[in-house]
Amino acid sequence: MTPAPRTLLPLAVLTAILLSAVAALVQAPYVTGDEAPHIDYAYQVWQGELPVFEDGLEHRPAGAWLAPVQWTAQHPPLYYLLVASIVGPLAEAGDPVAAVYAARGVNVLLSGVLVLVAHASARRICSPGSAVPAVAAFVVATMAAKSHTGGSGYNDLLAAVFVTATFGVAAAAIRRGLDARLVLALSLLASGAALTRLSAGVVAVVVAGVAGLAGLVRAEQGRGRWPPVVGLALGGPVLVLATAGWFYVRNVELTGTVTGSHFDWSYEHQGRSSKPLWLVLVEYVTWLRLPNLFWWAGQEPPRTAYVTDTMIVTGIVLVWIPIAIALVRAVRHRRDSSDVPATDRLALRLLLALPVVVLVTMQVVFASNGGGVYPRYLLPVSLPVCLAIAAGFTARPRLLVSVWTAITLADLAGWVVVELTTPPDEFWYYTEPLAPSVAVAVLAAVAAVGTARLVLSTTANRTQATTATAATTSVSAPTATS
Predict the structure, then answer these.
(1) CA distance from start to end of the chain
(2) Can you give the pLDDT at residue 474?
(3) For tag attachment on the chain, is the N or C end more exposed, with fewer CB atoms within 10 Å?
(4) For the chain, what is the largest distance between any 2 Cα atoms, rounded to a whole number of angstroms?
(5) What is the pTM of this model?
(6) What pLDDT score was predicted for residue 455?
(7) For residue 1, what are the CA distances in angstroms to 30, 188, 337?
């Protein structure tokens, strides 16, 4: 197969950075109820403290809605350590707008890192020569949930980077067997995820567990060695607990639970309530909104009717149709590589499916307890979702990639227009920089179209290479038998 153009991955990274910059500029500072507590967390870390739910916010920017409690205090501190050195001095100097843009700037860069890590991990998961990793890089780059989080002062993106890297290391372990370096990498990545978000830590541990299970099978079959398997089974949890366990012990001491959640407060003060688990499972909005990582208008609480108008289109067209095509192709064209043992193929499938099931289950339970249903909560498993969508594109790339890109950019344009023309709900909202927002949005759209064209070139090269290989085989076969 002809390799992907060398410019595809850099352009995909640029697209990701520009789209996150669009979100950073179009969203007014502190426009959501969550951003002020996240910035306050970084400020408190800069002060040498960790926040406590009941103590509220210490950094209280004028002109922003401020919660009476510190409702991000249950999160581990790694992300806030990362941004504290730039957020803290700005907040301390009395410049809250610069502080929030500083945190957003770090996440804008992290969005580009996520594309690089996703592409590298996809290459280890997919068969050699597959076009899917290049297509997946484009899908990750244009992801709305990644862009919104990349343009906000949240900790989700760093967690997604850790878990996405864990997928790649686990796939390498499945394909070639565990060794000491892979065991250490899996343990460190799981520790980083657990120090960023609890849900990400759980998913990373599940991913590492699949790698360990595959290593166990290889050792039983005589294709692997026992020491790395034992090392991951014993040393991995010890390292995760040693690095992140202290924080969750603190959560238990302060709140009585490992998660540190305060659902009782949200029931009393936010009008939220629990609902039966079965009801969350049967509500169509759960399956249209939660996995809709590509829906620009619906990443945050609805502010306009435009959100309702676009949810069904983006959910079905941008997520479920490509995934359905990929599943149909997987069933109709089951071609297993002879050089990949059946147990390894099964482990790779389990690697992609089990973490998604685990995280979706966690979020459904969270929603049943009164939590929100936001696509960014699925960012830790965005790689399997994007791989499925990319695999679906390879069925009819020219049609599917073109339509998907057009709808994505139309959704982006609609969101930008609505956000920039809708008057603030409250008088205290900060304003968005209009001209830079439009200029960066145009640049992002151009970069996305350019990346899509390179994706089409890549998939076309793959089709031509496959056809040429088939023709060569059919011509040479009679000669071999004559």
Answers:
(1) 29
(2) 36
(3) C
(4) 86
(5) 0.92
(6) 94
(7) 48, 35, 16
What pLDDT, on the 0 to 100 scale, is given for residue 122? 97
pLDDT of residue 422: 79
Q: Where are the alpha helices (DSSP H) in 221-294?
A: 226-255, 263-269, 277-282, 284-289
> Could you give the 3-state DSSP secondary structure of residue 75?
coil
pLDDT for residue 379: 97
As a dihedral over the C-alpha atoms of residue 222, residue 228, residue 233, residue 239, rounded to 10 degrees, the angle is -170
Give per-10-residue mean pLDDT for the chain (482 aa): 75 98 92 90 96 94 85 96 97 94 97 98 93 96 96 96 98 94 96 97 97 92 87 92 96 94 86 89 87 84 58 86 92 64 91 97 93 91 97 93 94 90 69 89 97 90 46 36 32
Please state, in angstroms and rounded to a whole number, the distance separating the CA atoms of residues 292 and 375: 6
- 288 in Cβ contact with 309 (< 8 Å): no
The CA distance from 155 to 441, in Å, is: 24
**How high is the pLDDT of residue 62?**
82
Measured from the Cβ of residue 66, the count of other Cβ atoms closer than 10 Å reads 17
Contact at 8 Å (CB) between 59 and 40? yes
The type of residue at 421 is T
| Distance separating alpha carbons of residues 235 and 212, to the nearest angstrom | 12
Q: How far apart are CA 200 and CA 321, in angstroms?
A: 27
Q: Is the Cβ–Cβ distance between 377 and 363 less than 8 Å?
A: yes
| DSSP-based three-state secondary structure for 69 | coil
Contact 117, 33 (CB under 8 A): no
Q: Collapse the DSSP code of 167 into the 3-class scheme (helix H, G, I; strand E, B; otherwise coil) and give the result.
A: helix
* Calpha distance 393→171 (Å, rounded): 22
Residue among 141, 135, 145, 151 at smallest CA distance from 116: 141
CA-nearest of 20, 16, 30, 15 to 432 is: 30
Provide the pLDDT for residue 472: 36
Place of tokens 């007014």: 28
Q: Write down the number of H helices and E strands in the chain.
A: 19, 0
